[in-house]
Design brief:
about 400 residues, alpha/beta, eight-stranded mixed beta sheet, six-stranded mixed beta sheet, 17 strands, about 20% strand, disordered N terminus
Length: about 400
């Protein structure tokens, strides 16, 4: 796809420009952060925009002098790896970044199934002498599966609390609808950890609060190509609310079949996996009307300069929220490093990692690049405001904003 090719070229160019020597500590004027996300394979649709956001932040930070550590400005060295959205590869990369590369902290990855496996290597209980798990602060700038950061006190996320997003969206569509829905239908991408948790924990939890049971419920896999049987069941249920707990690959295939069979629910909601330009490129008019949560819409005030740089590096007109989250995340890491009082030497690495972890855990009312305040919750998830985006007239449009209400309905 043109999108993947252009972003791949941008990633390769940025990595070549920002590559630093292999050894990186205070005496050499660098501080090292690890990075892993899917840069090739199907998951690259999410991973490539993420790494571009990271490198834009790194370049900005280094151009402004770098990071202040122990009275000295040092450059940020981001070591980027490709986990291909594969859990086993993620584990290998995580061990390499923690051990051989001696990264102060590790950022990534995108897919919850990979984060869950990587973070399984971490210490489960802080200061437990009997727990030999790895002790390195790790922060995902996208992974969304409900509760996954609670695996370890060393794990953090800045994408928000998914169940809060979906409960708020349920309330918003109910209000727009003028009341509760009669025929709710759910669809689950059952082989993907994030989608499964979104449906079983978040969506079903919201429905239970309302004493509602789905009129129909179907499942498919991320890589499926035939959705005719599932869509027939959806059609017979005549949904007025369709809950699509699935990523763009299956979303597009299912909704093209829905269009073929004449299925058009009044409201359709999905999770952050719908935030991909491929929804438009591949789905066309069939995906119109889908609403999904986001942390930063590319047309939001405060995102303009990042969006302009993203366009410059990739040639793309649309910037997903993953880019902003990665950009914001690197500034969170800068804040944590500068505030923690570390030494950034090989001898102080273990102590420095613990200080960074404690700093991230204590984050309260930190002001992000958009001017909003973020606070780290007890489960390692940052609490934050959300916006909601819809696909309409061949474009992504802001549907609801916390300061302005409904924008495009």
């Amino acid at each position: 796809m043109r999108y993947l090719k252009s972003v791949t070229m941008a990633v390769a160019g940025v990595m070549a420009m920002t590559a630093l020597p292999a050894s990186a500590f205070q005496d050499e004027g660098t501080v090292r952060i690890g990075s892993t996300e899917p840069l090739t394979g199907p998951g690259a649709v999410y991973g490539q925009p993420n790494i571009v956001g990271k490198f834009i932040a790194v370049d900005e930070i280094n151009a402004a002098g770098g990071i202040m550590i122990d009275g000295k400005q040092v450059k940020l060295d981001l070591i980027s790896e490709d986990d291909q959205a594969k859990p086993d590869q993620g584990v290998t990369i995580f061990r390499k970044l923690e051990g051989k590369d001696q990264a102060l902290a590790i950022t990534g990855t995108i897919y919850s199934r990979v984060s869950e496996t990587m973070w399984g290597l971490l210490q489960k209980k802080l200061d437990d002498a009997g727990d030999t798990g790895l002790q390195v602060p790790s922060m995902s700038f996208m992974s969304m599966k409900a509760g996954v950061a609670s695996i370890s006190p060393w794990a953090f996320r800045n994408a928000g609390v998914e169940c809060d997003q979906h409960e708020e969206l349920m309330q918003l569509v109910e209000k727009a609808n003028g009341g509760n829905f009669t025929n709710v239908v759910g669809a689950l991408e059952s082989n993907e950890a994030h989608s499964a948790a979104a449906w079983r924990v978040c969506y079903q939890g919201s429905l239970k609060k309302r004493d509602q049971t789905p009129k129909a419920y179907v499942e498919w896999f991320e890589q499926d190509t035939d959705f005719s049987v599932q869509v027939r069941r959806i059609r017979r249920a005549k949904p007025d609310l369709f809950i699509l707990s699935s990523h763009y690959q299956a979303n597009v295939g299912a909704m093209l079949e829905m269009a073929r069979q004449g299925v058009k629910p009044k409201y359709m909601i999905s999770h952050i996996g719908a935030d991909a330009v491929e929804m438009l490129d591949l789905g066309g008019k069939a995906v119109e009307g889908v609403i999904f949560p986001s942390t930063a819409f590319f047309k939001n005030p405060g995102v303009a300069s990042l969006y302009a740089e993203y366009q410059k590096r990739t040639g793309e007109w649309y910037m997903p929220a993953f880019t902003y989250l990665a950009y914001e995340g690197m500034y969170i890491m800068k804040w944590a490093i500068e505030s923690a009082g570390i030494k950034n030497t090989p001898e102080s690495l273990d102590e420095d990692r613990r200080k960074i972890r404690d700093q991230l855990a204590s984050m309260k009312d930190w002001v992000n690049p958009m001017g909003l305040t973020l606070t780290m919750g007890p489960t390692g998830d940052i609490t934050r405001d959300y916006v909601y985006v819809t696909i309409k007239d061949g474009d992504f449009k802001l549907w609801w904003h916390p300061d302005h209400g409904y924008m495009d309905i």
